[in-house]
Amino acid sequence: MTRKLNTPRRILKVRETLRRVAIGRATEAQSRLHGLEQKSVHLSSLRATMFDNEDCSAAQSLAARMELGHRLIGAGDQVNRAVIDARQSVAEQDRQRVAAHLDRDVMREFVARKTAGFELENERKIAANLPFRRPKKQR
After folding, report:
1. How many domains does the chain have?
2. Which CATH number does the domain housing residue 62 bear?
3. Per-residue pLDDT reduced to its tens digit, 79-119
4. What percent of the chain has pLDDT over 70?
5. Is residue 82 domain-resident?
6. What is the distance between the alpha carbons of residues 66 and 22, in angstroms, rounded to a whole number?
7. Inside any domain, residue 138
8. Domain of 15?
9. Report field, pTM of the whole predicted structure over 0.70
10. How large is the average pLDDT for residues 126-135?
11. Which residues, 6 or more positions from 18, have their beta carbon under 8 angstroms from its beta carbon?
């Protein structure tokens, strides 16, 4: 009996491991998204406060600030694209996590049914080997 149940239990363990991996990937993607969103907020606040100081008397200072402003805008665009990609990744990892949960639940139900079937089969075998057999009904 244990040999017959060995394969479904092993499959159930694999499904459980896949579920845990999916949860880990979803958590990792969520933390990456959170970090990128924080960077985006920081860059936008830096861009907003960069030109507050209006002490641009020298042309070099103004040119340097303009160059920095352009670089910040480019970096902000890159971070915004990365945030969009991270959100898509989070959504994909969540879908995989849900699929892993469903797969594990289906496998649990399968193992439970298979176990119940083995128990019923063993009860039938035990009943067949009893010394007192019931008389068969005549037709």
Report:
1. 1
2. 1.10.287
3. 989 999 999 989 998 899 899 889 888 888 888 888 888 88
4. 83
5. yes
6. 45
7. no
8. 2-128
9. no
10. 68
11. 100, 103, 104
